[in-house]
Amino acid sequence: MSDNPIQLSPQCSAISSFPVRQRLLVVDDEVLILEGLTRLLATRDYEVVTANGGCEALIAIGKQQFDAILLDLGMPDLNGNEVLRFVTERGVDTPVIVVSGDSTIDAAIRALRGGAADFVRKPYEPEELLRRIENTLTRRRLEKENNHILQRLQQSEKWHRFLVNSSPDFIYTLDCEGRFTFVNDRVESLLGYSSKELLGQHYSLVIHEDDIARAEHIFNERRAGDRSARNIEIHLKCNPGMRRPRLMNGRCKSVELTATGMYDEEASPFEQRFIGSYGVAKDITERKQAEETVHYQAYHDLLTGLPNRALFRDHLGLMLAQARRTQQPLAVLSLDLDHFKVINDSLGHAIGDELLLAVGARLRQCLREGDTLARLGGDEFAVLLPTLVSRSDVEHICRKIIQVLSKPVYVKGHEIYISVSIGACVAPEDGDMIDSLIRQAEIAMYRAKSQGRSRLQFWEAGMQAPYSERMQIEVDLRRALARNEFVLFYQPQVDTVTGEVRGFEALLRWWHPQRGLLTPADFIPVAEECGVIVPIGDWVLRQAAEQMAEWRRAGLPPVRLSVNISARQLESADFVDSVMRAVQVYSLDGNLLELEITETLLMRDFEANAIKLGRLSVAGIRLAIDDFGTGYSSFKYLSRFPIHTLKIDQSFVQELDREENMSIVNAMIAMGRGMNLNVVAEGVETEAQRALLQQMQCHEVQGYYYSPPVSSHEATALLGRHARGFEQHDQRVAG
């Protein structure tokens, strides 16, 4: 021990040597997330304590100490910000890493300012999370060591240097002329200067040019004690010869500087001889970059890097104010790619994203310097054209855009042709309110689409009426469930040989208080767009399950009931659970419930859909492919799903008199039978169609030839008549 220049006391050694296993508290209200994080952290030999919600977290924090806390924000009992405030106010010396699915800028900044050591968004890469945890624990260890050593600064000069050089912060002293008399080793990793390079140099050598004026007051700090400068943000320059570029632009670092004046302790109290200043600079570059990243993401589209709707509104507000001063008009354009959904569905979202990038690049080529191009979402772009002379300027730019985008785009071996519909409005002629101008341009764009696409349409008075009606439908839809305005009708599916009712398809109708009975075509597109389709779909599942339970209680024979599933339903996280709840609540035989899904919908997220439908198949739920023949019609892909039924689209059935259609339908039926699938033909309206389908050995038919969609009462009566008819037939056969 005598060979060591510095000897640690037992107490100091206890603080410096951490236990082998570091203890982490994981706080979340989702049990699956807690289990997953526990398994992940166990791979690094952490000791993990879990808390299912904020209240359990406070109890755990009160009982034992932790090296770090992984904290979710959105929890029903006590949210993460309240837990974070408790940790801060109670002075709990434990770093908190917020792990949240809330991706808003306010959530991240509020957590960081509330005392969080780091902010990780869900979903995250496991290795990234582990790296963040290790970095936080390392910083905590260094800070603990630093704080403890600071208390013993006066023990000896050697002890002082050990303290300072082990600090994660840049520590320095200046003489009364502002020259460095001491710098710790941290300066080399922070700024790329060695201690020898800075000693004797004026502090201005490391100050960024923009902060020279502010630095004069901080680095020449003469105040001491509570009145001294604390946590002043400033930028320090890195050594130009520094090899390793770091955060920001690699040439400067953001620090929080705390400085105090130093005075000669041997002088009399009346002299107060100033001998220099002492300062500590804490590196906050990572935090600043995180804040800048959050800010950028809040105002830019992450795919294209273009301004998003929020930033576009800001630019429009500034340009409107300038237009009022200069008395020059400006224009707002709304651009939407024609048939982009077809490209996404047929070639995949990866190709669609590449196409959007190419479109953004071509649009920039068509615009002037000073114009603003933004992506508002999906395939919708917006353009702001300030300083116009007349509407002819708008027409010229739009013609150029339409011409440029009409040329083929080559993406990963695909030659893609696109066109664009453009809506335009001009301020102040069409108004001078931000949201009104954007909305009017969008409405004009929709009019351009309705008139044949690939054209420009200026806003005109009276265009608002159809869209006001659509908005009213959306408002009424949101109230319809609470007012019990929806009803299910049932169309029978009949055996082509025996005429027996094998099942029903549940069809949604809306008893609108003013418009009367509406079919899905009148409101489902609006419900899909505004998201109301998910609760409506859940209601349809529950209502269909309740109807099956009623038929069972009435002693009617068990029949299959088919329910249509929307895209948003299938994509929702709790889709499988919602189906299983409907089956379990009414104690149904899962084999009697059939979910109808289109081919296009199945292919939207192939792997995820296969997993969800596989879980339902294990529970006995049947799956039908609706409108077969209008989508992919690929048995190679369909074989990956647990399919029980193929429903041939009515467009083929209604034209069976055409030879080519008859061949197609015959092939579909033959292939379906070859895969041991039940085949149902939709839209059967004549005896000739029924006879042809029976001859082709189609299992079941559905259409107005047998029955239109009927009410619950009529469906029950129809099922009862069929049951009695077949019962009498069986008795006659037995007799």
TrEMBL record:
Residues 23-137 form the Response regulatory domain. Keywords: Phosphoprotein. Residues 328-461 form the GGDEF domain. Pfam families: EAL, GGDEF, PAS, Response_reg. This is Diguanylate cyclase. Residues 470-723 form the EAL domain. It comes from Thiobacillus denitrificans. It catalyses: 3',3'-c-di-GMP + H2O = 5'-phosphoguanylyl(3'->5')guanosine + H(+).
